[in-house]
Amino acid sequence: MFGIDTNVLIRLLVRDNDAQVRAAERFIATHCSAGDPGFVSRVVIAEVAWVLKDYYDYDRTQVAVAVRGLLNVSAGCEHAVTFDRKAAKLPGFKLLAG
After folding, report:
1. How far is residue 37 from each of residues 4, 29, 56, 72, measured CA to CA in Å?
2. 55-58: long-range pairs with CB below 8 Å, 24+
3. What three-state secondary structure class fits 24?
């Protein structure tokens, strides 16, 4: 199982960077399934809510709908994928090229 970072989820939700959206979709299609979904931590869920509200001006209902879709995940991931080059240098993260 793989962890999924905030910026990957934001791309999938707001679809504002075509190359990263395609990379995120390919990753999900290749590495995640109903039996082995990606892991989304509580911190990532909080960050997603904050980014959607403060950066993208989502209202509370829109944030709730987006977050609700992320809550059915499990633990035990090998690493988290991210578009953040600095985070990708940390243990437990791998860069997802976009």
Report:
1. 10, 10, 26, 9
2. 56/14
3. helix
Range of the domain at 52: 3-95
The residue assigned the tokens 């959607």 is 52
Query: 3-state SS of the chain: helix, strand, coil percent to 5?
Result: 50, 10, 40
The answer, as to whether pTM is greater than 0.85, is: no
Total number of domains in the chain? 1
Give the chain's largest Cα–Cα span.
35
What tokens does 44 get? 């990532």
Q: What does the pLDDT look like over 35-51, one tens digit per residue?
A: 888 888 889 999 999 99
